[in-house]
Amino acid sequence: MALDGFDEFRFTHDGATRTVYRRGTGPAVVIIHEIPGITPPVAAFARRVAEAGFTAFLPHLFGTPGKPLSAGYTIGQMVRVCVSREFRVLAKHESSPITDWLRALCRHAHAECGGPGVGAIGMCLTGNFALALMVDATIMAPVLSQPSLPFPVTASHRAALHISADELACVKERAQAGCPVLGLRFTADPMCPPERFGALRRELGDAFEAIEIDSSPGNAYGIKRTAHSVVTKDLVDEQGHPTRAALDRVLSFFRERLIEH
Is the per-residue pLDDT at 232 higher than 90? Predict the structure, then answer.
């Protein structure tokens, strides 16, 4: 089973209660799963984080935990999320309300695990959430993996960051004070267009570290143009492959910020 070896608990904040899966010891890393849910590749990534010396916290936000990925499952969960009040998939200058609950979970994880702070990684639809979580000082290692909100339906949406002006000001202040941000994407991914990383570079300057993996036609590693999920579904777990290098960098980023800091 995908979640064998994970503990399970219920976490409540502001009247909302959700299940959280936990594994490992050490500083906390909150892993915010992608569409359609906690699939086996997402659980495998959480297991890698735990094996690297961290306590992985994997909150269940939508979908069926452990259910394998399929096209129908993905479409069904996408529709559900699009009509949910907790997610604002087209908001350019406003974060999704669920980030308040996630910030509270990060504070809980920090109180439980200690250390200098918490790592957080969002993926796909939740990718930008790690940026919004930086409003809370407990977040020390934010990772944006293929951040896909707002959906890139217009030119302005392509360059937007799904965060309010006040939140962005706080993020920029923290970045300037020494809290870096790591971002991952495939170059041909239409859901995470280059304009989004361009905006992150403009706003965060040298504090933003971008890993952009070539998925253009004829690329050296034969990566498909449809590649999207850098550290889960589209990971090729072989030494020397750029997705494996990206995974290794995520783990070393967590180590630098949460253990060696």
Answer: yes
